[in-house]
Amino acid sequence: MFQYVIKRLISTVPVLLGISLLLFVMLRMLPGDPAQVLAGQMATPEEVEVIRHQLGLDRPIHVQYALFLARLAHLDLGRSARTQNPVIQEIWARLPNTVLLAVLAISLACLFGIPAGIVAAVRPNSWIDYLVTSSALVGISMPVFWLGLMLVVVFSVLLQWLPAGGTGSWKHVVLPSLTLASFVVAFIARMTRSSMLEVLSQDYVTTARAKGLKELWVITKHALKNALIPIITVVGLQFGMLLGGAVLTETVFAWPGLGRLIVDSILARDYPMIQGTILVFGLLYILVNLVVDLIYAVVDPRIRYE
Amino acid sequence: MRDGALLAIRDLRVRFHTLEGSFYAVDGVDWHVERRETLGLVGESGCGKSVTALSVLRLLPPRTTEIQGQILFEGINLLELDTEQLRRIRGNSVSMIFQEPMTSLNPVFTVGEQIAETIRLHQGLTPKEAWDQAVEMLRLVQIPSPEARAKDYPHQLSGGMRQRAMIAMALSCHPQLLLADEPTTALDVTIQAQIMDLMLRLREEMHTSIVLISHNLGLIAEMARRVVVMYAGKVVEEAPVRELFHDPLHPYTRGLLGSVPWIGRKQTTGRRRLQEIPGIVPGLMEMPSGCRFHPRCPEAKEVCRREPPPTIHRDDGRRVLCWLWA
Ligand SMILES: Nc1ncnc2c1ncn2[C@@H]1O[C@H](COP(=O)(O)OP(=O)(O)OP(=O)(O)O)[C@@H](O)[C@H]1O
Ligand SMILES: [Mg+2]
Asked: B215 near B42, Cβ under 8 Å?
């Protein structure tokens, strides 16, 4: 198991290198000139050239990439073209915000989505099932920014219970995490329902009942553990996605996370910042996947890694 | 029907409500099992054997099933118990073994845990004691190195070993009645024989009554004392095993036996042999009028087409559902 983890971690290196190469080339194919953006509309061509030289963008692309890799080997992602701060430092300042929001949103979503899915599966085609499935549909189709704005209108403007945006206290995190969770909970509830429905028709569930177990135990112990694999998959995917920054939610609530950082960097053609952030996203995504794979093996004894 | 019966089923009707419509899968079934008796329940696929057995412990999906009649276990009607009372009987005084050892054990718990769970539930033992007893049960069903096997998951065991584990689980609380629904059908012939030998032995040791459901008439001949033959949701004949094999009364039973070489001789699957009766079991929603067997019956008369046959109780204690004996 330990060896497997090491192997997986080592295999992330080529993946991240691939991402960085692709990104490096694609960024430079984008329309828009970073030197021009940074220098401003009024700058003379000479000034733009000076900035281009400072950014190292006047060198051939393979030289640029070699330099990037050389720095990366020392865990140096360069400096932001926009703020001149080290990229690592900028990411590090926002990463906790993003992780906090993602963890809260996914926890809330699991807390409500899994029980809702179970209840719906236990009573298929009942009013409670229709309630769950139709709320899930609403949750998936409702635009995130619209829900966010509505929450702000109700809880910040009308009731004045919670701040409309920013960071600082636990109150600030409530609305953005609710907004994100409402979207994710829908996926989790739907997957839990369909997975549980399938498991509940299996013979071993009848066996569990025939033993004299309480129905609650039959469902939460014998059925749920078998239904978990697809649920974990969805939770992992959604969590990975949330760690990639929730651009809309962060924008609506002025939440200083990685999502807004990457959007701002793209608008400013801030190559080092974009490269650094995307690499971090890639790394997080790979780590989440690894953890998910490890949880599979804990839940299902038939899954073994050597 | 004697009052001393351990289990007595009276006029059991089981109706399923499905999207295609409602139908009776079991339509007025009566039989009983006495203490320490093995009753054989035979009939073609789809005739309602499993549904009858599942009704005893009320394991059919409650939302789509309607059960009428009486199921008296030690005089208590199981159909009237509340869920708590029923739970105390399930797996404790009445337990069940299913056909498919591959799918009837939970894949994500160890075999030992699945057996110990039943023991903890009904006997109030500590986890450690229950585990030790689970290992003893595995030893009893002759699983080699039971301490190690108890820690295995079902997928690590062969089909035969899994069925032994199922038997260990079913017998772990020393039930008075074991409902064995085709316990060996899914296994190879040699393993089948081993499992049946095991069940014979355990029956002697534990004094358990058994309802053995099987297609395999050879198996029934070896194990059962009395046989109930079902066709299309009804009991068509009941007789002590020797009488049934020597002198079947119902044309359907004759058809079933027509292909059996001789009592006690090992049989391959009953399913293939049964096809020597012409035609197929009627669909539950298109039951023929009169006797349900008449379209396939070589001896069908005019009355068989018109009127459902009466149950004839003979002086020798046998019964048959047929106009021939009226
Ligand atoms: N839960 C259910 N819902 C609807 N119909 C059912 C259900 N369970 C069984 N049936 C139907 O009831 C009929 C009797 O089924 P049953 O399983 O008792 O047959 P069986 O005699 O055990 O046959 P086999 O030898 O194949 O096991 C079948 O037509 C089956 O399709
Ligand atoms: Mg069956």
From this structure: yes
Of B110, B117, B155, the CB nearest to A211: B117
Nearest CA in chain A to B118: A211
Helix (H, G, I), strand (E, B) or coil at A41: coil
- The widest CA-to-CA distance across chain B, in whole angstroms, is 67
pTM for the structure as a whole = 0.86
| B121 pocket-lining for ligand 1 (C-beta < 6 Å) | no
Q: Which residues of A touch B118 (CB under 8 A)?
A: 211-212
B16 lines ligand 1 (CB under 6 A): yes
Q: How far is CA A42 from CA A37, A54, A57, B31, in A?
A: 10, 19, 20, 99
* ipTM computed for the complex: 0.88
| Integer Cα distance of B249 and B238 in angstroms | 9
Question: How far apart (Å, rounded) are the C-alpha atoms in residues A300 and A224?
Answer: 12
CB of A39 closer than 8 Å to CB of A22: no
Sheet with B65-73, edge to edge strand ranges = B21-33, B7-18, B65-73, B76-77
Using DSSP, state whether B28 is helix, strand or coil.
strand
Sign of CA pseudo-dihedral A61, A64, A68, A69: positive
Q: How many angstroms separate the CA atoms of A280 and A293, rounded?
A: 20
Give the containing element (helix H, strand E) for B12. strand B7-18
B59 lines ligand 1 (CB under 6 A): no
Question: Residue A79 pLDDT > 90, yes or no?
Answer: no
CATH architecture of A94-299: Orthogonal Bundle (1.10)
Check pLDDT > 60 for residue B156: yes
Total residues found in chain A within this entry: 306
Sign of the CA dihedral running B36, B42, B45, B47: negative
User: Residue B79 is encoded by which pair of tokens?
Assistant: 């159909």
Tens of pLDDT, residue by residue over B261-297, are 444 444 444 444 444 677 777 777 778 888 999 998 8
Residue type, A35: A
Let me know how many helices (H) and strands (E) chain A has, helices first: 14, 0
Q: What is the DSSP string of A111-179?
A: HHHHHHHHHHHHSTTSHHHHHHHHHHHHHHHS-HHHHHHHHIIIIIIIS--S-SS--SSHHHHHHHHHH
